[in-house]
Amino acid sequence: MKRKLLSCIILGSVCIFEVSCKKVLESIINCTGESVFMSLHYTVDASSPKLVHFEGKYSGSHSFDSVTWDFGDGKTGTGKTVDHTYAASGTYNVKAKIKVTDGKSHCESDPVRSVVIN
Questions:
Q1: Domains in the chain, start-ordered, CATH in brackets?
Q2: Which residues contact 102 (CB under 8 A, 6 or more apart)?
Q3: How many helices (H) and strands (E) does the chain have?
Q4: How many CB atoms lie within 10 A of CB 78?
Q5: pLDDT tens across the length of the chain (118 residues)
Q6: Sign, CA torsion 27/32/34/38
Q7: What are phi and psi of 72, to 5 degrees?
């Protein structure tokens, strides 16, 4: 009798655990895989060489939520597309924190590009 009761408890626990694990796995975004679809692009303005147009891009299947920028000169910005004017010539490491969402889950990736300002 004790053995049957113990078997039922173990079987019930396994079934509950399996169902709860499936729910958790369905709501997780694979951040490593999604980072392949995130990128940072820029163009230097032809008439004003210290003005740079930046764009964060995402080509995956989730919702493109936001981009937070670090322009490498102590200044920051937000938005999928932003313009930034550098005060001095030099090489700057620009980082775009790109955030994508899928329901309650989210994923962030930080692509970095070196920008040369003349």
A1: 29-117 (2.60.40.10)
A2: 27, 29, 62, 63
A3: 2, 8
A4: 10
A5: 556 655 556 655 544 444 444 444 445 667 777 778 889 999 999 999 999 999 999 888 888 889 999 999 999 999 999 999 999 999 999 999 999 988 888 888 899 999 999 9
A6: positive
A7: 85, 0
